[in-house]
């Protein structure tokens, strides 16, 4: 009789452990899914912001190849151009926010 009792307790404990592990797995999968969705939303926001910045810089008229080329050239020379480009960009954004137009 005692063996059966211990066997039943072990079986119940094993089932409870399996249920807890399944819940933990589902919770982990939900967290990963939420993180992945957040990353997608963040990327979509960043892409929209980059497009908005291209318009603010009045670069919307550039051909695709020219725009990509200009950005690639900047990235290749970024160490030399970073401070100057940041200063120019900050001045341009400030002027836009104040309702004035920055000079080119």
Polypeptide structure, described:
Helix 2 crosses helix 3. It contains 3 helices and no strands. The chain has helices spanning 2-56, 64-76, 78-97. The longest helix is centred in the N-terminal third of the chain and has 55 residues, at 2-56. The protein folds into 2 domains: 1-56; 62-104, no CATH class. The mean pLDDT is 92. Helices cover 85% and strands 0% of the residues. The protein has 104 residues and is mostly helical.
Overall tally of structural domains: 2
Counted by DSSP, the helix tally is 3
How would you classify the helix and strand content by structural class?
mainly alpha
Radius of gyration: 29 Å
Q: Which H/E pattern describes the elements?
A: HHH
Report the end-to-end length measured between terminal Cα atoms: 92 Å
Q: Which sheet architecture does the biggest sheet show?
A: none
Contiguous runs where pLDDT drops below 50 for at least 5 residues: none
Strand content: under 5%
Report mean pLDDT, rounded to a whole number.
92
The helicity comes to over 70%
Silhouette: rod-shaped
- Number of E-type strands: 0
Annotation keywords:
104 residues, mainly alpha, 2 domains, 85% helix, rod-shaped
Summarize the SSE layout with pairings.
Layout (H helix, E strand, L loop, with lengths): L1 H55 L7 H13 L1 H20 L7
